[in-house]
Here is the input.
Amino acid sequence: MDQESFFSKISEKIVLTAQIKALIEKNLSTLFFEKNDRLLSPGHVPMEMYYIQEGLVMGHTIRQKQKVVQWFQFQDSFLIPSCFFHQQPATEYITFREPTVLLSLPHTIIQSINKIHRESQNLFLLLAEDSIQAGKERENMMRMFPEDRYRHLAKTQPYLFTGGHFEFLASYMNMSRRHFVRIRNRFAKERD
Here is the structure.
């Protein structure tokens, strides 16, 4: 698959030297997943970071036999599992909500690149900061009223509303499926 979008996304953060780019290119792998496939489970140590070329990925935990959605990641974004940089066991499941294509870069390669080229550490710090920022944005969203949460997500992440992921969206927005459907129907009537 084309790696151009991967390097274009990186160039938004930092300019890579030709040597670092060549090392990354050489070690990127393309992975293909189907809807509902699982990438990671709690207790397993994440060994790779990813770039989502196509598809939709969801992170969730299970509480009282229910999936509790923590986050979604869409194409053209980096997916860095929690505890990746510290190489600790994962605390969440990562599954695919639609067929997905990932580019993966192993942790061992990232360590090697960082040892040889110290300037590459800035890139991985910036990517880690993006993950932290996304968590803060969700935290801010959770402080909104339910209708405002719905409106905010519909505006900022419209792709979540196109695949019939309503059960997972309700969980992500911390509301019952019934409440979610009521809000969705109200917004549908307003659009008509």
